[in-house]
Amino acid sequence: MQRTRLLSSALRARRAVRHVLVLVAVALLAAGCAPKKNLPPIQPAEACPVPSGATATAAEPEEVVELPIPPADDGVPLTPQEWAALNSTGELDKNLSPEARRDVELHFKYFTHRARGTFERYLKRSQNYLPHIREVFRQQGIPEEIAYLAIVESGFNPNAVSPAGAVGVWQFMPYTGMRYGLSYSWWMDERRDPYKSARAAADYLQKLYGDFGDWHLAMAAYNAGEGKISRALEGTGAEGFFDLRAKNHMLDGKAQLKDETRQYVPRFIAVAKIMRNLESLGFQAPDYSCPPKLEQLRVKPGTDLMALAQAMGQNWSDFSANNPAFRRYISPPDAHTTVYVHPMHLEAATAFLAKPQQRSYAGWRVYKVRQGDTLDRIGKRCGVPVSVLKRVNKASGKLQVGQELMIPGGGDATDFTAQAETPASKSAASAKGGKAVADKQDKSDKSDRSSSVRTRDIAERRATYIVKQGDTLYGIAKAQGSSVETLQKANGLSGIALQLGQKLYIPDAGAEATAIARQEAEAANKAIVASASRGGAERAATPVAVATASKSAGAKPAASQAAAPSGRAIVYKVQEGDTMWAIARKFNVPPKELLRWNNLERDAQLKPGDQITVHAAQ
């Protein structure tokens, strides 16, 4: 994943003050003002770094600092226990070269000395998630120590966000997350779901291992991208990650691996050595035998999550801690979703979900239409896309003065806590008739807008694309951070052939805009067909380009419904050692589709002789 190092100006100032204090202290000691007994020299407190440049949410601002790559040697000799830990080996850190070992030692000393407090915080977080990640990796046949990559990526922080837009424990970019089943929309961002994202990370790492046949290269590709590593291997003829590092000088300019990628695997190896020697290194090892147990409940489309939280006696901050994927107080109105609840709240949650008609609409606001209002103006004022307002209110473009609109509440995940710390009792007391009434003043309406609202405004203005010579549906989808299937549904397309001048609608990442976009696109494209029949038939009949089936197969977002099987059906007999993932790769089909065609769960166990149906591309 791509990283950018940041240094907060406030922290820079704080660090400068600390250095001044150190100089003052040294001067006082020189003047004889120090106590008579010998004391260790005063050291400035170290700021806490976030791993690999990932920035934490506002709750942990101290983690937004510059992290040297590699860290400088602090000059402190290793203790015998530290030497023993550094010399320990596992499946992934044998036979290191002297240069690789030096870099591993620098990261090892950094996390055990200067950033020890940071590493302890990561350990505390790991208690909630590491057992689940290990189990997922075990099921996928991935070495369990690779679960420690989550420390390198985010420090097990579900809300970690990089400046490049990577999010969550596993730092997925939107497009990559959607490729591996993590839905991303105005309503929710499953990259923040620590459980689903662990599955996606396992699938991605498994795919990368299949590409390169080497776990070190797979991890490097997770950081830099498979294309970057593939080109670097081709340009150097290297046979492994550390060989590639040594030959990096053979590459030109942008083709070279960045320092971050060159240090990514050494940092992981250092973390793995620490994790397998926690007690001897003086860390308090978390109790992984009893991870927090959460119950999964399936909720209907459009469920009022704020009201659900209140029914369980929680404020939004408590609910969001277990369900960081939800970006609004309402679940997506077009899909069933999963919420995680503590067993002690299971009965209350189940009772609430069984009687949705009694919900208090705590997550909604009521807006009364005024003279001159339009859906566009209301949407911008309240920070809600017009397509969402139309969908949840079944509204057309015409509004009546005095008409009441339901406005889904909640801002982006990064400002959930600030918006919703109000306890349930206070929220209920301020509601009128079970509904939270919107402030009628324009001034307060405008104060609700955030930078995220402006981003959505820009995104909506860029929702149209005109097909050019050489375009493919796959290429357009990739460039727009969408998928082939999403564009097909939004534009009423049955295939992947395009025509010059064709207008494509690029829906919001959420599916709420799809129905409207489809209607508009169908109308626009009928005009192209009509024009072709009046003299432009030659142009209309000639597709611009056709994307290969293998390219379009892997870009299916989880939120969209599965398409009907295409291609000829093949019955494959399972061989010794086969897995569903391996069979999917063999036939170049998405693993999720292979499971769907055979009505199997993803953890299904195969036996030699089992028959698997595959719809191979024609």
From TrEMBL:
<dbReference type="InterPro" id="IPR018392">
    <property type="entry name" value="LysM"/>
</dbReference>
<dbReference type="GO" id="GO:0008932">
    <property type="term" value="F:lytic endotransglycosylase activity"/>
</dbReference>
<dbReference type="InterPro" id="IPR036779">
    <property type="entry name" value="LysM_dom_sf"/>
</dbReference>
<feature type="region of interest" description="Disordered">
    <location>
        <begin position="414"/>
        <end position="455"/>
    </location>
</feature>
<feature type="domain" description="LysM">
    <location>
        <begin position="463"/>
        <end position="506"/>
    </location>
</feature>
<dbReference type="InterPro" id="IPR008258">
    <property type="entry name" value="Transglycosylase_SLT_dom_1"/>
</dbReference>
<feature type="domain" description="LysM">
    <location>
        <begin position="570"/>
        <end position="614"/>
    </location>
</feature>
<feature type="compositionally biased region" description="Basic and acidic residues">
    <location>
        <begin position="437"/>
        <end position="455"/>
    </location>
</feature>
<dbReference type="GO" id="GO:0000270">
    <property type="term" value="P:peptidoglycan metabolic process"/>
</dbReference>
<dbReference type="Pfam" id="PF01476">
    <property type="entry name" value="LysM"/>
</dbReference>
<dbReference type="Pfam" id="PF01464">
    <property type="entry name" value="SLT"/>
</dbReference>
<protein>
    <submittedName>
        <fullName>Lytic transglycosylase catalytic</fullName>
    </submittedName>
</protein>
<dbReference type="InterPro" id="IPR000189">
    <property type="entry name" value="Transglyc_AS"/>
</dbReference>
<dbReference type="GO" id="GO:0016020">
    <property type="term" value="C:membrane"/>
</dbReference>
<comment type="similarity">
    <text>Belongs to the transglycosylase Slt family.</text>
</comment>
<feature type="compositionally biased region" description="Low complexity">
    <location>
        <begin position="424"/>
        <end position="436"/>
    </location>
</feature>
<dbReference type="InterPro" id="IPR023346">
    <property type="entry name" value="Lysozyme-like_dom_sf"/>
</dbReference>
